[in-house]
Amino acid sequence: MATPTQDTNTNLTWRRFEDGVDQWDELTDKIFVQDTSHKCPTYIHKTPPCQGSCPSGEDIRGYLAIVRQQEKPPADMDWREYAFRRSTDANPFPSMMGRVCPAPCQDGCNRNDVDDFVGINAVEQYIGDTALEQGYKFQAGADTGKKVAVIGGGPAGMAAAYQLRRMGHGVTLFERDPELGGMMRYGIPNYRIPRDKLAAEIQRILDMGVEARTGVSVGTDIPVADLERDYDAILWALGCQTGRGLPVPGWEGTPNCVSGVAFLKAFNEGRMKATGKKLVCIGGGDTSIDVISVARRLGSNEAAGKPEDVVHDRSMQHDQAIADAAVPSEATLTSLFTKDKMFAAEHEIHDALTEGCAILDGVMPLEVILGADGRATGLKVCDCTMDGMKPVPVEGTERVLEADIIVSAIGQGGDMTGLEELANERNLIDADKFYQVPGKKGHFVAGDIVRPHLLTTAIGQASIVSDSINEYLNNQEHKKRPKIDVHHFDLNKKLEETGLTPEPFVHDDRGDLRGTDGGDWAVHNYDDRSFAEVVGSDELFLGHFKYEARYLRSEDVPSSDQVLHHFTERMSALAEEQVVGEAKRCMSCGMCFECDNCVIYCPQDAVFRVNKSKSTTGRYVDTDYTRCIGCHICADVCPTGYIQMGLGE
Q1: What is the DSSP letter of 238?
Q2: Alpha-carbon distance 59 to 70, whole Å?
Q3: Rounded to the nearest 5 degrees, what angle is found at the Cα of 236, between the Cα atoms of 411 and 407?
Q4: What is the DSSP letter of 474?
Q5: What does the alpha-carbon distance between residue 546 and residue 403 come to, in Å, rounded to a whole number?
Q6: In angstroms, rounded to a whole number, what is the distance separating the alpha carbons of residues 225 and 248?
Q7: What's the whole-model pTM score?
Q8: How confident is the model at residue 630 (pLDDT cuts 50, 70, 90)?
Q9: HEC string for 354-393
Q10: Strand 40-45 and strand 358-361: pairing?
């Protein structure tokens, strides 16, 4: 869990010893006893928990090391571009995701056990925005002659198109809506995702040679058989743009009961410029927060007619006069969970309250109250407690919330019209572990249509399915995916980049192979376990890190009196010096960050810096085993958990 906000406002310190532990060990005895272990330090690369928690699988530690300018870029590349290249190896939307990702990476950050997590999103936003300002482009791979049809131009489809073009495959995107972007465009308000930056990140992918056909629906406008004939593989990345209705009496068929997906789409398409006087939304996640925040910004206007009409009728559009004459509206969110357990991001909840939204937590819906005209007039609710995921009503707390529009934001589903043969019982598409559609050779699937989740989850699945498609197109057997399936730092690639590629290994030329320390054909004293192990905070020397407050992005959050028509971007970026400072807070878990502790504290001078001409990230220190006595002080004082005592076991 991330450090609670109230705890980060105090000067926290990490304690190596608990109360009552007041006797020093005899260090000299410890050193000489350990001499009998025959163990010496080995350098173990592990995955940091930020990366292990990132569904996109970004090399977060890697691009933070580049931003802090500890890992050096190639001689012909600026560090800002190098950070962009490392970041976008997994995620082609750093500007967008730096703004809206709920950041499970920050929840996983080991720095939470020192003071407060590293502001990974803030750094990613800077990387993405700088890339757009500098005009950095993506490069397509050498043409393979293979063609892939990608159905859906949302995060999963666009990210897969990007990865497939990097591999050299031709890609055609088929999108039902008039514009690409999926939920990034149609499901998230413009004050959270600036439309100019979204368009630029999409265009950067199209510029790789991706063909886009918008406004067409596969299965109705284009038969699936035509795609099977014309393309070597098909990727279904349809997304989930239908909302789940509320499972209470009175909901079904009531015109002013709408889904959160439909409500936000009407707003994001620019058609809805006013809503009801009293809106009630049922949810608790980020979508429900967006609904009530949008309602407060739009306001209401009786001249707009019934608030649900513009949601249901895709041809209806409010004019600017409707918006100009709007007055503030009431927006209420009900959540089964209390605020500290809601799925929405903490800062999103805080912002909504600042904007004058009402959030009733620990409340469950019971019934939609209908008027004589068949429209809803209110929502009957009661207090509840939670038994796991099941709400338990509290008797005697029933009341009615007045409403002229009720919005359900409790989940999403797929629209499989024309594709019924692919649909499972949940109206989604089944996938195997390689994201193939079972029983449909050449068909693959990724994103929300597998299981609705986060944008970052869809982007991560796009990487995996692209590998599967590439293997299929090359008639290769699918490789077993690693236990920790992310984009890892690769020391061999780094050595090649810096001109330090090991010499070819020829067995007959090597003679005695009982040691590698003098060989230029092996990476001595290094083991890559990042594909199987995540390094926890208990493996780090946390005492190395002093308290450092996180650099916080400022937010333009309007008050309840200012919120009407306030569509300015809410999240402000950090300045470059703040971004560098924030990256320096990273503890580089599982990878050496060149602090020199092991060199300084080794009593035998056995640990030494690698010669500068042969040094690079991951190869900063080495050990002279003729001097090492196995005391493991170097491992004790390693802040990052990179050193582990081994060999003699």
Answers
A1: -
A2: 15
A3: 20
A4: T
A5: 52
A6: 41
A7: 0.92
A8: confident
A9: HCCCEEEECEEEEEEEECCCCCEEEEEEEEEEEECCEEEE
A10: unpaired
Describe the strand order of the beta sheet including 257-259 as a list of residue ranges: 257-259, 405-408, 278-283, 330-335, 358-361
Sequence spans of domains, the chain: 5-135+488-646, 147-241+414-473, 250-411
Residue type, 587: M
239: closest CA among 185, 172, 290? 185
Is there a contact between 312 and 293 (Cβ–Cβ < 8 Å)?
Answer: no
- Are the C-beta atoms of residues 158 and 196 closer than 8 Å to each other? no
> Residue 22: pLDDT above 70?
no
CATH architecture of 147-241+414-473: 3-Layer(bba) Sandwich (3.50)
According to the model, what pLDDT value does residue 513 have?
66
Pairing of strands 363-370, 376-387: antiparallel
Is residue 8 over pLDDT 60? Answer: no
pLDDT bin (cut points 50, 70, 90) of residue 13 is low
- Give the CATH H-level superfamily of domain 250-411: FAD/NAD(P)-binding domain (3.50.50.60)
Contact 271, 264 (CB under 8 A): no
Contact (CB, 8 A) for 629 and 604: yes
Phi, psi of 577 (to 5 degrees): -65, -30
- Are 329 and 277 in contact by the 8 Å Cβ rule? The answer is yes
Q: How confident is the model at residue 100 (pLDDT cuts 50, 70, 90)?
A: very high
